Amino acid sequence: MEDLNFQHRARARAGGTRQSAIVGVVASGNLEVLVERSLPDADCALEIKTAAVGFGEVWSAVIDDFVERYSPGGLKFSINDGGARPDTVSLRLAQAVRLIEGNGQ
Amino acid sequence: MSVIEKTAAVVTPSEARQSADAAAQIERREGAKVMTSWQTGRAARDARIAAGAGLAHGKIVEAKDATRLLEAVIRPGDRVCLEGDNQKQADLLSRALLAVDLSRVKDLHMVQSGVVLPEHLDLFDRGVAKRLDYAYSGPQSARIARMLFGGKIELGAVHTYLELFARYFIDLTPHVALIAAVSADREGNLYTGPNTEDTPTVVEATAFKDGVVIAQVNEIVEKVPRVDIPADRVQFIVESDKPFFVEPLFTRDPAAITEGQILTAMLAIKGIYAPYGVQRLNHGIGFSTAAIELLLPTFGERLGLKGLIATHFALNPHPALIPAIESGWVRQIHSFGSEVGMDEYIRARSDVYFTGPDGSLRSNRAFCQTAGLYACDMFIGSTLQIDLQGNSSTVTTSRIAGFGGAPNMGADARGRRHPSEPWLKAGAEADPDSPAPLRRGRKLVVQIGETFGDKNVPLFVEKLEAIELAEKLKLELAPVMIYGDDVTHIVTEEGLANLLLCRTAQEREQAIRGVAGYTDVGRRRDRNMVACLRERGVIRRPEDLGINPLDADRSLLAARSIKDLVRWSGGLYSPPSKFRNW
C-alpha cells in the first residue's frame, strides 16, 4: 500500500449543491472515489490509498490534467485504488465530478 | 535421350523404406545410359501406401494401429503437416505420432500453421521432430519460446497463414499430411464440418505432389453430409473414439468489456468507420472490436450509419456480432473457421454466412485470408506493443505467439487494382499531390487498444521486445506483426491518430505519443507539436468528435452478457459451458 496526497488550486468552484457522492468499487483494476464538498471554493485535495506502489509520477500527471480540465474547486476526493489503470482513474474522477454537480440525483 | 523408366511396379519393399528425397537422388546424367526416372516421387508415394496398406481394411485403420500406420508411412526427415489449425486439431494423430519408434521415425520437419497442443512440442522434446515452420502458437507461446532458446527446435520461420500455405506449393510441400475431419465414408470422402479451415489447402499441396494424406475422423458413415475432400485425395482413415479438439477462440464475453474499450469503440465508429464509409472489413479478436460489434445496433444506429458501414466481413462467426446481424446491419460474412456453439445460428442465417448444401458452415482459411487481403478496405485489431514508428508486435521476450493472419489482414495489398471509396480516400490523404488516376489507394489498417493493458503493462514502447528477441535468437528479422508503414490509424481512449496525414517521421512519432495516454511514451510528448497536430486533425480527441467520455457506459452495449447474446439469437447460439454462468 502507498498513501499519496495532492493539493491543488482550482480556477473555479465545482457546480451544483450536492454535498457528497461516491463512484466505483474497490476491486482489482478498479477504484472507489468519495467526493465531498468540504473545502474553500478555490481548493481541491486528493487523498489516495493505492495497492500499486511506485506510481506517484503517473498519479501526479493524471491529477494535473483532471484539475485543469474539470476545475473541481471546493472538492475533497478520497480514493481507494485497487491498481486501476490511469485511464480508469481519469474516468472515475470525471464521473465523481459529474455526480456531485448533478442535482442530488 | 535413352531413358529407361523405373516404374512404381518395380519398387521393392526395401526401396519402399527409402525416403522420397533419397529416391530423388537417382543419378540423372546427360547422354549416359543410366537407370533414371522422372516419377520417383510417385513411386515413393506408392511404396508408402503399400507399406501402410497391411494395417488397413480398405482405407480404414483402427485407432489402436495409428502409431504403426505412421511408422509404416513416414520416413526419417520427412516434411509432415500435422493439422494444427487455428481452431481444429488432429489430436489423435498427434498422440499417435508422439508414440512412434524413434528407430523408424525421427528428425521430422513439421510444417503446420498452428502449434497449439502440448503434443505438438512434445514431438521436439522426444526427437520425433527437429525442424519447424509455422504461423501461430497461441496457447503454446511461452513454451515454444523456451524451446527455441534451449535449441530444442530448429526454427525455419514464423509465417503468416497465407505465406505458409504458399510455401506448401513451392518449397515446403508435405510428404505426409495428418488431417482432421468430422466424418468419412468408406471410400474416403471427407466431411470437415463447419471448421474446414486449412484442410483443403493442406490436402491440395500434399495429394497432388506425391504425398500421403491420413485423416482422423469422428465417425465413419454410409454417406457424408457433403464432400469437402474427395476420396481419391485421402489414403488412410482412422476413426477416433472422441471428436477432435476445437478451441473457442472468438468468443468474447460482453460482461468483461470495460468503459475504456467502449470509448475506444465509439471513437473508431465515429472517427473512422463513418468518415471513410467502411463497408468491407475484418475485425481482430480483442475486446475493443467486440465492443464495436456490440455498439453498431445502439450507438451506430443513432448516428444513422446502418447500411453505410460494416456490411461485408471476412470474419469468423463472432457471437458478439449476433445483435448487429439480427438488427439487419450485416449482409455477408465469409469465415476462416467456425466458432464453438454457433452452428445452429449459422444454419438458420444462410443469407449471411457461406453454407454447404447440407446447411452447415463452409469455412476456408486460405480463401478468407485472400478475401481479407484483397477485398476488404479495413483491418482493425489489437496488439501488445506499438513503437514510435507504429510497428506492432505480439511477441514479448518470454512469449512467441506467432502471426496467424493479422499481417495479411493488416497489410496494404500492393497487387490490388479495384477502387472503392475508403481505399481511394485513404490513398488521397497519404499522397495528396499525385494525379488521381495514378495514385494507389490505401487499405485502412487500424490498431485499437487501451494505453495500458493487462497488469498495467503499457501498449506503447520506445523499442519492441521483438527486436531483443531477434537479437537473442539470432533471427535475421524481428517478428513484427504489422509494420509501421502499413498502419494508418491508432485509436486509444485518449484519441485517434491519423498517420496518413503525417508528413515526416517526427510528426508520426508525435502523433503516436499524442494518443499514448499516461504511458512513458505518452508523457514524453512534445506538447506544442501535439497541439499543432490536433489543430490539423491528425490527432482527434473524444470532444473533437463530439463524444463525451462519460457517455461511454456499458448500457450502450447491445448485449451485456453471453446470456443476452443467446437471447438475441432466439436461442440458436449455444455457448460452450465455460461461458455459461446461469
UniProtKB/TrEMBL annotation, chain A:
The modification O-(phosphoribosyl dephospho-coenzyme A)serine is found at residue 28. GO terms for cellular component: cytoplasm. InterPro entries: Mal_deCO2ase/Cit_lyase_ACP, Malonate_deCO2ase_dsu. Its main location: cytoplasm. Pfam families: ACP. Keywords: Cytoplasm, Phosphoprotein. It is found in: Cytoplasm. Covalently binds the prosthetic group of malonate decarboxylase. It comes from the Bacteria. GO terms for molecular function: acyl carrier activity. Subunit of malonate decarboxylase, it is an acyl carrier protein to which acetyl and malonyl thioester residues are bound via a 2'-(5''-phosphoribosyl)-3'-dephospho-CoA prosthetic group and turn over during the catalytic mechanism. Belongs to the MdcC family. NCBIfam families: malonate_delta. This is Malonate decarboxylase acyl carrier protein. It comes from Bradyrhizobium shewense.
TrEMBL record, chain B:
Residues 411-436 are annotated as: Disordered. Transmembrane segments: none annotated. It holds the Pfam family Mal_decarbox_Al. One of its GO terms (molecular function) is transferase activity. It comes from the Bacteria. Gene3D superfamilies: Glutaconate Coenzyme A-transferase (3.40.1080.10). This is Malonate decarboxylase alpha subunit. The lineage of its organism: Bacteria, Pseudomonadati, Pseudomonadota, Alphaproteobacteria, Hyphomicrobiales.
